[in-house]
Task: structure prediction
Amino acid sequence: MRIISYNVNGVRAAIKKGLIDWLKTNPADIICLQEIKADKADIPVEMFDELGFHSYWYSAQKKGYSGVAILSKIKPDNIQYGNGITQSDAEGRVLRADLGDITLINAYYPSGTSGDERQTYKYQWLDEFHDYLTKLRKTRSKLIVSGDYNICHRAIDIHDPIGNKKSSGFLPDERAWMDKFFDAGFIDSFRFFNPQPGHYTWWSARFKDLRERNKGWRIDYINVTEPLKVALIDAAIYPQIKHSDHCPVYLELAV
Result:
């Protein structure tokens, strides 16, 4: 099973930048998209159908905002839209697919960069999401949680940890949540294979040439619970793929 997680920063914009041509190269069996920024009715879904994907779209109520999707060449046994938490569901942040005894969660974690109100909500969402995962694991122990987490876990995951120590996405309480998440039995699949610095998944568009100079943040992940540890084959980050200010992250499992 090959999985990609990709914040496309607007699926229609990404299509104009060559997303479909890239998907034609068969980069994965399952593609998890975040920040689709569109309603299903406004998306050329037939383009994905023609490539053999079953596609599931969960848009935010607010137009042009947030939203997640799962494209899968393996037909899921069950799809769940949202996690039953009102504000998170209104913002289209969580989409679940069950594939045999494996459950895949595609999540777009809130950003706190727009101010204190959203940062406060981000902390609320993180706690609610952790509770949701804890309950789900009681019946579905093999979990994959992919998505844009909007958090760098450690100094190795950000190009300037000192300069960004007060920046949303690298705040102590956010990083502590990641500690709690991994301590609860999740595995950072990329770090499982690659302990080296200099690997990032997002580069701010506010400053010129950050991607070319590799001054980025690793905020996109595909993490798995301990029962899937033995199934891990490979993980990677694809900075050369450029349809967004993020890049795809990859995981391969023997299942």
In short: Helices lie at 11-16, 19-23, 45-49, 86-90, 116-136, 172-183, 189-193. The mean pLDDT is 97.
